[in-house]
Amino acid sequence: MKTILITGGTDGMGKGVAMHFLKKGDRVIVVGSSPGKGKNFYNDAKQLGAEKRAIFLQANLSLVEENRRIVEEVKSKFQSLDMVVFCAASQKYRETSLETEEGFEFTFALYYLSRYVLSYGLKELLEKAENPVILNVCAPGMKGTINWDDIQYKNNFNSQKAMFHGSRLNDLLGVAFAQSDTEGKIKYILFNPWAVQTEGAFDAYKNPMMKSIVKIIYKITGKPVEEAIKPIIKLLENPKASLSAFKQEKEVSLTMKTFDKENAQKLFNITVQLLKGFSNENKTVEK
Ligand SMILES: NC(=O)c1ccc[n+]([C@@H]2O[C@H](COP(=O)([O-])OP(=O)(O)OC[C@H]3O[C@@H](n4cnc5c(N)ncnc54)[C@H](OP(=O)(O)O)[C@@H]3O)[C@@H](O)[C@H]2O)c1
C-alpha cells in the first residue's frame, strides 16, 4: 500500500487523483482549508469502503506556519511518503492583491511558497519510499519573465497574471529542487493540465457573462476531471527523470528559459531569505 499526500485533494483534479488511489487500495492524505469539503471527502471514501485509508488534514496553506504544521504532523504520523501531489490553489478573480496575516501576497503564498515549504519539508519522508515522486500541478513552460523587483506580484496586481507568474516560480522550484537533490531519488514532475472543467477554473472570471462563456468554451475544448487526471496518474506511476515537465501527455522541453538554472538558484536564495525573515528560524525545515 502506497501513501500519497495531495494538497487541494478535496476538490477538482486533486480530489480526482485522491479517489483514484483510494479505489486502488492506497492510503491517501488530503489537505484543504474547508472542513465541509473534508467531510465530503470522508463520505466519498466511506462509500468506497476506504475510510480507514482516507485522511483529511485541515489547513490554510496560504500560511507558512500552517505548511510547517502539516509537515510536522505528517512526519509524526507516517513512516514514509510515496507521492506528493500539489493541487491546492485559489484561481478566484481578485481586483487587488491580498496580504496574508504573515505579510505575503496570497497567490504567491498559496501557489508558490506552500509548495516550496512542503517540497523541502517532506523530502526526508519521501526519500524513505522506494520510488518517490512529487507532482506539481501548475502550468510549466509558460512564456514570460520573472518579476524580480516584485517577486510576490503585489504591484500592478492582476489575479490571472499573478497565477501565471506563480506558475513560472513553480517551474524554478522544480529546477532548484532537482539541482539540490544530490541523492536524486525523488522524481519531480511539473504538470500542466491545460483547460479542466473545475469550479475553481471558472472562479477566475469576475463577470458572470464571461464565466458562462468560459464554461461553454471549456465544455468544448477542456476536459472533465476524470479525463484530465489520466496523464497525472500515468506519470505518478511511472516517474522517470529527476526533473520533467509535461503539458498533458506532451513533454515540455527543459531548455526553455522558464527553467533557467541560475534563475532557479536566485529564486531559491530569495525564498530562503523571505522565510528566515518572518518567524522562528529554528523551525525552518528548508535549508
Ligand atoms: N482547472 C484548470 O483548468 C487548470 C488549468 C491549469 C492549471 N491548473 C492548476 O491545477 C491545480 C488544480 O486545479 P483545480 O482546478 O483542480 O483546483 P480547484 O478545483 O479549484 O480545487 C482547489 C483545491 O485547493 C484547495 N485550496 C484552496 N485554497 C486553499 C488554502 N488556502 N489552503 C488549503 N487548500 C486550499 C481547495 O480546497 P478548499 O476550498 O477546501 O480550501 C481545493 O481542494 C491548481 O494548481 C491550478 O492552478 C488548473
Characteristics of this structure?
8-stranded mixed sheet; alpha/beta; binds NADP nicotinamide-adenine-dinucleotide phosphate; 46% helix; 11 helices; 13% strand
Strand content: 5-15%
Q: What is the correct CATH architecture?
A: 3-Layer(aba) Sandwich
Quickly name the level 1 CATH class: Alpha Beta
What profile does the largest beta sheet have?
A: 8 strands, mixed
Would you kindly provide a written description of the structure presented here, covering whatever features stand out?
The chain has 287 residues and is α/β, with parallel strands linked by helices. The chain has a single domain (3-195, 226-277), classed as NAD(P)-binding Rossmann-like Domain (Rossmann fold), CATH 3.40.50. The protein is 46% helix and 13% strand. The protein is built from 11 helices and 8 strands. It has helices at 12-24, 35-47, 64-77, 106-121, 123-127, 159-180, 199-202, 208-221, 225-228, 230-237, 261-278; strands spanning 3-7, 27-32, 54-58, 83-86, 133-137, 187-192, 243-247, 250-251. It has an 8-stranded mixed beta sheet with strand order 3-2-1-4-5-6-7-8, sandwiched between helices. A hairpin with a 2-residue loop joins strand 7 and strand 8. Helix 3 (64-77) packs parallel to helix 4 (106-121), helix 4 runs parallel beside helix 6 and helix 6 crosses helix 11. The radius of gyration is 18 Å and the shape is globular. Bound molecules: NADP nicotinamide-adenine-dinucleotide phosphate. NADP nicotinamide-adenine-dinucleotide phosphate binds next to helix 1, strand 2 and helix 7.
